[in-house]
Amino acid sequence: MSTMIQFTSFLLSLFFFFLLLNQTNSPMVAATHPDIILKTCKRCAKGDPNLNYTLCVESLASVPKSHHSDVRGLAIVAVKLSKAKTMHAKSMVKKLLKAKPMEGYMKNCLLTCTDVYSDSISDLKDSMKAIKSGQYKDANIRISSAVDAPGNCEDSFQDGNIKSPLMEENKDVFGLAVIALGITALLG
Ligand SMILES: *[C@@H]1O[C@H](CO)[C@@H](O)[C@H](O)[C@H]1NC(C)=O
Q1: Whose CA is nearest to atom 2 of ligand 1?
Q2: Residues in CB range of 140: below 8 A, 6 or more apart
Q3: Contact indicator for 144, 136 with CB cutoff of 8 Å
Q4: How confident is the model at residue 100 (pLDDT cuts 50, 70, 90)?
Q5: Which of 41, 51, 53, 55 gets mutated to test ligand 1 (max ligand atoms within 8 A of its CB)?
Q6: Is Disulfide bond one of the keywords UniProt gives this record (predicted)?
């Protein structure tokens, strides 16, 4: 009789052991953890009125890897997104420069923006390396330059009182750079 009870209790322990094992691996449990993207974007948005929380969540969530990332991984994703948007803006300038004959001043502004974007792209590349090697302060400085870039491009048009043909691009570039900076700042 007592061996029977012992055996039953052994089976029960086994049963609960596997139940527990199974649960920790189940996606249901993972889903109840607050999502790293929401959590990180919330933390960044709190410290920066320029940071667009919706854009932060949407742009990070568009990269599948983000969902299984830590904050450092998200910082790298955000820098990559910033770089891609800046490259897009730069290709836009290239098109504008080819499109038609234009006033000299406009052409100078566009050339200024090309330089600004090129510097920014190399800053973002360097910042990615810096994040990967744990040099967060260095990354911060470089991403800060990338945050300033779209404004520097816009200024050239404003100084000549002409309408910027890159307003939308600069707004997008700025929005993403602010997010990259915000997440990197969380790394310390
Ligand atoms: C924030 O981003 C969302 C999504 O891209 C956009 O629809 C919204 O206009 C942005 N808000 C501001 C204040 O720029």
Answers
A1: 55
A2: 181, 184, 185
A3: no
A4: confident
A5: 55
A6: yes
Residues of the chain with pLDDT > 70: what percent? 82
For residue 87, which of 141, 138, 146 has the smallest C-alpha distance? 146
What's the CA gap between 173 and 72, in Å, rounded? 21
Q: Comparing 9-18, 30-39, 114-123, which segment has the lowest mean pLDDT?
A: 9-18
Instruction: Tell me if 49 CB under 6 Å of ligand 1.
Output: no
Query: Which residue has its alpha carbon closest to ligand 1 atom 12?
Result: 52
Q: How confident is the model at residue 12 (pLDDT cuts 50, 70, 90)?
A: very low
d(CA 106, CA 97): 9
Average pLDDT over residues 154-162: 95
Residues in the chain, how many? 188
User: What is the whole-number distance in angstroms between the Cα of residue 6 and the centre of ligand 1?
Assistant: 64
Tokens standing for residue 105: 């001043």
